[in-house]
Amino acid sequence: MLKRMIVMLAATIAIVAALGFVKFRQIQTAIAQGAAFQPPPEAVTTIAASEQQWPATLTAVGTVAPVRGVTVSADLPGVVDRIGFESGQAVREGDVLAALDTRQERAQLAAAEAQRDLAKVNFDRMEGLLRERVISRAEYDSAIAELRQGDARVGEIKATMERKTIRAPFSGVLGLRRVNVGQYLSGGDAMVTLESLDPIYVNFGVPQQSVGQVRPGKIVRAIADDVSGIEFTGRVTAIDSVVDEATRNVQIQATFSNPTGRLRPGMYVHSEVSVGASRSVVSVPASAISYAPYGDSVFVIAEIKRDNGQSYRGVRQQIVKLGGARGDQVAVVSGVQPGDEVVTSGLFKLRNGAAVLVNNTVTPSNNSKPKPENN
Length: 375
Known about the structure:
Layout (H helix, E strand, L loop, with lengths): L1 H35 L5 E7 L1 E5 L2 E17 L4 E6 L6 E2 L4 E5 L2 H29 L5 H27 L1 E3 L4 E3 L9 E2 L4 E18 L11 E6 L6 E9 L9 E8 L11 E7 L4 E7 L11 E9 L5 E9 L1 E6 L2 E6 L6 E5 L10 E3 L17
Parallel strand pairs: 1-21
Antiparallel strand pairs: 1-20, 2-15, 3-10, 3-14, 4-6, 4-9, 5-8, 6-7, 8-10, 10-13, 11-12, 11-14, 12-13, 15-19, 16-17, 18-19
């Protein structure tokens, strides 16, 4: 009985040992396969970094402002009797825009003119009597004062009537009409805006450390974000005397010719000021830059060797220092050499040393002056 139990125990131990050995071999094989596994290459697009000549410029977002712009309003209270303009109309200096009711002033003017005429008759009579020494000099002076008061009263009423005729203070384009015939206006109530559009200003800010490079007369280019993408050319005409404490920028004012009225007050434009000769830079698309707090970087295509000595086509992450931007392009000051093949899309799924498969069938935009489509 004891012998049989010993045999059974030995057989059980042998079976368990055999199963453990088989399992151990399976685990070893799985570990070896896992160590040898390589993830499939990631599909990316690339471009060769190129050396280009970029003009030395300062870029900023500018705001269009009129050379002259006012809100035309009523000088005196009254009822609108006549309107002589339409919304959006071009007017010339002195054109009548509106007239307020002046019936009361016309009646007052008739009375004042009658009083003035009477004072003139009395003055003429007093003048003759003075020569004949019939009246005193004091009576004659009183007649002169009455005549002058009459003239002043007539002039005052005429000035009031003239102030109730609202005229364009300068030539320009009107905005939307805000009054109607029969409407009562208080003094200062707005009637319409008037803007002079040609020429026109573009105001923009430059950093305080760069303001020394800007001088009156410098060429300024401006592009408005519309379908046409027309580039306007003007010149710097004024530089602000103070630095904005909030932004540490100095405001620059440039004057542009605007005969077609394409630039409108309040529009924003991309402005660019030439500040020197062209410079040589290494240019890559903006989509190639991986921005991060610890430093910006790009992925450069390179031949990388594995631990077993085999080489494959992969990427090397390279920290770069950036310069300015121009359209879809970014200047790289250091970190990339001309001719380096740089990844332009698919960066989010890459890591240093990752295998890649280049497919440049469709590539990101790389235009220095892009013109976005009207979607």
